Amino acid sequence: MKVENPPLDTESVCQMHELWVTAFGNDFVSDVPDDVLFGDEDRWNCVDIYRHISERQTISTAIVIRPHALPTLGGLGEVSTDPKFRGKGLATTTCKQLAEDFHRIGGKALFLGTTNPDAARIYERLGWQHINGSKLMVHLSDTDDYDDFIRRYFANSIPSKICVAKPGCRIPLIPLVLLPHNWAILDSNVSLYSTNVEPQLSCLGLYRRYEYLRTHREGEWFTLTAEDERVLGISSAIYKGDNRYQVDGFCHPDHE
User: Fold this and answer.
1) Which of 84, 181, 189, 210 could form an S-S bond across to 194 if both were Cys, CB 3.0 to 4.6 Å?
2) Where do you find CATH 3.40.630.30 in the chain?
3) Are 90 and 60 in contact (CB under 8 A)?
4) CA geometry: angle at 64 spanning 44 and 214, to 5°?
5) CATH for 155-255?
């Protein structure tokens, strides 16, 4: 197993895409875009790419993303194995190793999302726990449950600044979205709902959902953060023509 950091070479990235299509289907869209693999986010995030290689071909992957400003958080994605190599424990070995690596360097909460019950059972055996109101799971460094962790995580967080969203919020926005907000609709511009009314299925895909507004020139989005870059609020604006914008957003219940 290789553990690499961006930038990857083009051949390696192409191999990973081929694997993901084989493993997940032709309509699969990665939550880890190529610019991350090529190192464009190195200023904001640490990206660890785990690969098993057989005969110079990538046969299994997993990617962990940690923000430099808030390295206690992490997101895990693109855990996949070539169907021809399934049943050999590659994903299990990889996820066990990456969780140990994450916590060894000070990580406290490693998030992932899965709608596959078989995969969820594997994660459970490796120490991940389910998060209420979602299809997300988290691997904690402490023995506390997630509710206790998140209560401490947001305790005493004071809003410090509002700015255009940057790649560094790719992971820190996850805990905010997972809070059980009283508002049914969190952000109508990206069809984001409270976990009280609709289970949250996305993990790393949450950032992609917001970034779509920017990359497709439909609008812009912003974050409210604490001094240590914990995300306490998110807002978005979609251009509707004739100098009109549709603005929506939400924040931590303590700061509504």
Assistant:
1) 181
2) 2-149, 155-255
3) yes
4) 50
5) 3.40.630.30
